[in-house]
Amino acid sequence: MTSTPPKKRVAALISGRGSNMQALAEAARAPDYPAEIALVVANRPDAAGLKWAADNGIATLALDHKIFPDRAAFDAHLNNALNNAQIDLVALAGFMRILTPVFVAQWQGRMINVHPSLLPLFPGLNTHQRAIEAGVKIAGCTVHFVTAEMDVGPIIAQAAVPVEPDDTSDTLAARVLTAEHKIYPMALNWVAAAKVTFGTAATARYGTSSHSNCLISPA
Predict the structure, then answer these.
(1) pLDDT in tens, 148-207
(2) CA-CA distance, 29 to 124, in Å (whole number)?
(3) In sequence order, which residues have a C-beta less than 8 Å from that of residue 194 and are 6 or more positions away?
(4) What is the C-alpha radius of gyration for the chain, rounded to an integer number of angstroms?
(5) Is 114-219 the same fold as 1-107?
(6) Which residue of the set 115, 128, 144, 181 is catalytic?
(7) Model pLDDT for residues 135-150, shown as the tens digit of each residue
(8) Which DSSP symbol is given to 30?
């Protein structure tokens, strides 16, 4: 009889309420899920997601970026905290900070992010308003490995949703967020189980599936 490998220890990095962090933590409750959310880190001490995590028995760390002299100092402290917590993987979940190339290199292949657009379209901020102004008929979200260049790392999974004629940035954001909550736990599962890696993500092809008004690929 083979033993079940230990779950990968994941740190979720947030700046606000951390709804994607919550989706990951809920998925990780399943006994056969290959990862656990072992730590939630916020760069804003008042981030609402910290209370949710603590209430659900997850270790938390408030690391106020304003007290550090520069990004390098913040990232060095963050890296030490992650190593001290024996973290295996990092999931950015609404973490509104640009990480330094040094930090990214230390976690390359072990750090993922969810972005609210179908990359490579609309990297950066204000994605939903930009999608509406561009007149696209399909929007969505992307889970990708993090690289030093923002929003260009190898894509792990994407989900597409329709852009309705009367959409505002808020209504489109809500529709995309629902899709994010579907594909982020799926993508973390694959990474934690080594079903997809930094080197294989770009060529992974598993087909597509339809889930409640969104199309997910791979499925």
Answers:
(1) 999 999 999 999 999 999 999 999 999 999 999 999 999 999 999 999 999 876 665 555
(2) 31
(3) none
(4) 17
(5) yes
(6) 115
(7) 999 999 999 999 999 9
(8) S
Euclidean distance between CA atoms 169 and 68, whole angstroms: 34
Give which of 206, 51, 49, 191 is closest to 113, Cα–Cα.
191
For the chain, the maximum distance between any two Cα atoms, rounded to a whole number of angstroms, is 57
pLDDT per position as a tens digit, 150-159: 999 999 999 9
pLDDT, tens digit (0-9, with 9 covering 90-100), for 81-135: 999 999 999 999 999 999 999 999 999 999 999 999 999 999 999 999 999 999 9
- The pLDDT of residue 3 is 72
**Residue extents of the structural domains in the chain:** 1-107, 114-219
* Rounded-to-integer distance, Cα 106 and Cα 91, Å: 14
CATH (residue range 1-107): 3.40.50.170
With 0-12 / 13-18 / 19 or more C-beta atoms within 10 angstroms meaning exposed / middle / buried, residue 25 is buried
CATH architecture designation of domain 114-219: 3-Layer(aba) Sandwich (3.40)
Give catalytic status of residue 211 as yes or no.
no
Dump the DSSP string for 53-89. HHHTT-EEEE--GGGSSSHHHHHHHHHHHHHHTT--E
